[in-house]
Specification:
Number of domains: 2
Number of strands: 8
Order of helices and strands: EEHHEHEEHHEHHEE
Structural class: alpha+beta
Strand content: 15-25%
Largest sheet: 4 strands, antiparallel
Radius of gyration: 23 Å
CATH class of the largest domain: Alpha Beta
Strand order of the largest sheet: 2-3-6-4
CATH topology of the largest domain: Gyrase A, domain 2
Number of helices: 7
Shape: elongated
Oligomer: single chain
Distance between the termini: 43 Å
Length: about 250
């Protein structure tokens, strides 16, 4: 049985900017496609493609963040594969709706006999709590395996093997804990990402989803720094990582 202690966030798609030839921008400085999409959209609103202030993309976007004109960030979408989070964490994540898309592993179809489980951050580092939690998880997984075997026998009259397995697994999954690992593909525009991060990075957020949000922020700041420049990761009083944002709810 695999016990996971941290999430893994992988970027699998990024925006591509195709500049229209009849409305060229006088670009200053280097920028990613996602950043240039936002600048192009902002300059279109005022037909300021000639860049009268001579700003770099990073300077222009920081001013947009400061002014709170968040609509221009809705055009750039980033897609990530998130692994190593629990089902309780994913159920919190999918509550974010506007600007988001989700595709999550199905326990109804996938055999969880060898599933991984995510240890809650609150338990990490405490030997006795880790041992107790691990024993509980092992018992739950064993119960799942037994339930699948017995349900397969109960439905042996079902000729279609795929349907028989589905009937067994969809009932047996009821004994699996919320700690069962989820793999999920998420897509969100920058404005939606920023809203999620602002809500989930704070010290009041649940520890596991905060840990996931920190991992997402690190990835996004590396991918499009000018779009997430005002976020800061810091160490909370309990030693865990948290984050804060400079410009709220853009």
């Amino acid at each position: 049985m695999q016990i996971l202690r941290s999430p893994r966030v992988t970027l699998i798609a990024r925006p591509q900017f195709i500049e229209p030839g009849h409305l060229p921008i006088q670009w200053k400085g280097e920028a990613t496609d996602g950043e240039r999409i936002a600048e192009f959209a902002g300059r279109l609103c005022y037909m300021s493609q000639h860049n009268p202030a001579g700003r770099t993309t990073a300077e222009y976007l920081r001013n947009i963040l400061k002014q709170g004109h968040g609509s221009v960030f809705e055009h750039a979408t980033y897609v990530a594969l998130i692994e190593g989070i629990s089902r309780s964490c994913s159920h919190e994540l999918v509550r974010h709706r506007a600007g988001w898309g989700f595709s999550q592993l199905s326990q109804r179809y996938v055999d969880e006999s060898h599933a991984a489980f995510v240890m809650p951050p609150a338990i990490l580092g405490h030997e006795a709590l880790e041992a107790e939690w691990t024993a509980q998880i092992e018992a739950a997984q064993a119960a799942y395996v037994v339930a699948v075997e017995r349900l397969m026998a109960r439905y042996e009259w079902v000729e279609d093997k795929v349907h028989r397995r589905k009937l067994a697994r969809e009932a047996a999954r009821s004994v699996l804990p919320n700690a069962t690992e989820v793999k999920i593909v998420v897509s969100a525009n920058v404005r939606a990402w920023r809203t999620m991060l602002e809500l989930r990075l704070g010290e009041g957020a649940e520890l596991e989803i905060r840990r996931m949000a920190v991992a997402c922020l690190r990835l996004l700041q590396q991918e499009a720094p000018a779009l997430f420049v005002d976020f800061e990761i810091y160490q909370a009083a309990d030693g865990s990582e948290a984050g804060r944002v400079g410009f709220h709810k853009v």
